[in-house]
Amino acid sequence: SQTIHQWPATLVQPVGSPLSLECTVEGTSNPNLYWYRQAAGRGLQLLFYSVGIGQISSEVPQNLSASRPQDRQFILSSKKLLLSDSGFYLCAWATDSNQPQHFGDGTRLSIL
Amino acid sequence: QKEVEQDPGPLSVPEGAIVSLNCTYSNSAFQYFMWYRQYSRKGPELLMYTYSSGNKEDGRFTAQVDKSSKYISLFIRDSQPSDSATYLCAMSLLGGGADGLTFGKGTHLIIQP
What does the pLDDT look like over B75-88, one tens digit per residue? Predict the structure, then answer.
């Protein structure tokens, strides 16, 4: 069966510091991968999605970037964090574009 | 007008009651509709996945889609305290959404023992 892992589970970072969040999927090949952010009182917002290695689409202009260096690895990064980057970051995968998405347990990011 | 509207609650009901959760949407092009359950500090868990209009049943859960009214519902029968969570509706143009999913903000459900 397929599993998705995100780490770290929680992270506290100072403003202006860099960020790297990692997501890996097991048990499937060439999945669609997604990064969402869930802010308090707001719905999930799609940040990036990828349909293959090195293929990244950005949905919202952000202080963030994403990379997919391997088939089942998706990384969310920032060079300099802003206070507004605080939130709950969720990674999701789908077998293909016609299948539902499945989520990891997220990383809770606090910026001080 | 927001794309997907969902009452945030909280919705509090006694154990054993039938729960009705709803979302309305504005984009008539949405084809796929999902319900996710999210426990505190956890990621959303897929509960129901439906295409176009109609009903789908899975155990105690029933999902209904009325595309003509742009209205979807999730019914939970014989509700249990373990059903207490936030329920998110989501929808997409494509099944898994190469374009991503559009979510409601979620309804916080409390089942009282």
Answer: 999 999 999 999 99
